[in-house]
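PROTEIN DATA CARD
Card holder: HicB-like antitoxin of toxin-antitoxin system domain-containing protein
Chain length: 115
Origin: Nostoc favosum CHAB5714
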Amino acid sequence: MNLSVTASPTKTVPKLSYDVLIENQQDGTVKAILLGLPDCQGLGNTETEAIEQLSQSLQTRLKTAKIVTLEIEAPKVENPWLKIAGKYKDDPQFDEMLEYIEEYRRELDAHNEAR
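Structure generated from the sequence above:
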């Protein structure tokens, strides 16, 4: 299995975008939860305050962490059709079977055109 980890260079910081769940609480406050990181939340009296608090919380967290891209090569899967490919190549009735299939296909086509 090939595995590669890519880290962003320290000179260029990419802009990141996150999906945030906004929930109105029963006490009238608003909670902003970072999807994928449910422990990263912000609470405020308004949606804007909750998002600002969430943003500050995330920025504080990212100061001691880093985001990397993990690339994993997919496992190679054998094509199941290859196991039977060429199975009938030396069968003396193979050509006759192909002719039967072609004739049947022509009959189906003619029947569908007649509709």
